[in-house]
Design brief:
Blueprint (H helix, E strand, L loop, with lengths): L7 H14 L2 H14 L5 H13 L6 H16 L4 H28 L15 H6 L2 H21 L2 H6 L3 H15 L4 H8 L4 E7 L5 E7 L4 H14 L10 H8 L5 E4 L3 E4 L16 E2 L2 E7 L6 E4 L9 E7 L2 H8 L8
Parallel strand pairs: 1-6
Antiparallel strand pairs: 1-2, 2-8, 3-7, 4-6, 5-6
Helix pairs in contact: 1-2, 1-3, 3-4, 3-5, 4-5, 4-7, 5-7, 5-9, 7-10, 11-12
Amino acid sequence: MIFGRKSFPAAVEAFETAVRARDADAAERAFGRLTDTVGRARDAELHAAGPRLASFLGEVPPGPRATVAVLVGACVERGADPVACAPAVFAGARDAFERAADFCASWKEAGRGELPSHEGEALEEADFERIGFEPVTAWQSLPRFEMACVAMLNSPAVRRTAPGRVELRDAVARVAELSDEPFQCLVYALAVLDDEPFVAIDRATGAGFALRASGIGDNFQLHTLLADVLIGGGHLPGTAPSPEAVAMCRDRPGQTSTTGSFNLVGADGEWIWNEGSPADVPVVDGVRLVVLDPPPYERSWSAGRFFPGMTGELVLERVLAAEESRALLAQVAQPGR
């Protein structure tokens, strides 16, 4: 197939040829055409380009590698196969976070004080020589790799099957520890649960419910969906969230104001903060157990999805028998703070 010199497919082909040939000048020119033409690419072109770019992402020089990963993420968001693209993006991100950990350690050892911004403020030419080009570049690339990885993790198939998630999570945790930078979007995306069993028990009535959750990014979203399923479904008294708030927590774009219906408590008696993620909910007898108490004060927030590209689901599977609820509730500590 013949493409015009300024088409996106032609830019992808030229960039791959130059990268595989290790022709730095040609790769730089093709990279410029790649970024210039991606905005005009048709969906079919992006579908083909995502896996192709991912196939040689590890060979791309460190400077543009994270930007190419973002381009792969853009292709996935327009319909490219995320399962085919994710392993290379995760591997590139893991390498960047591991090298960035070296950068953080070297920076602190040199007594340079607060870490520089990812945009390069406070970096000096001497840092590239003293610490090394690749660790410095890796530090600068982390926000772009975070963006690319989240694009992959929007896919349930990637979250369930793609290799490299555990290793990437560990690498991110190491940099977060060294830098005091939370990388919250990536940490939360890596922690998203799918087909995860939950049990909710209303402490006041003793009623218990077996549920299954997928694709829920934070506990604001979990709280809203719990209120919809249990109050909106007629199982518990109270005021249910609006249909708009529920839809926005599932798959509708946007956010809208809602008010909390419960105080969420773990089996350890500690509050489960809305600002956390469902993975924070402690496990009891193989399921994550959340106790529902009355809210101690009114809390309102903007209901919606923490990850706008991720569909959230919370399904009620069955109402627990009274003896099941009592047995679980007996293992729950009194609420703390």
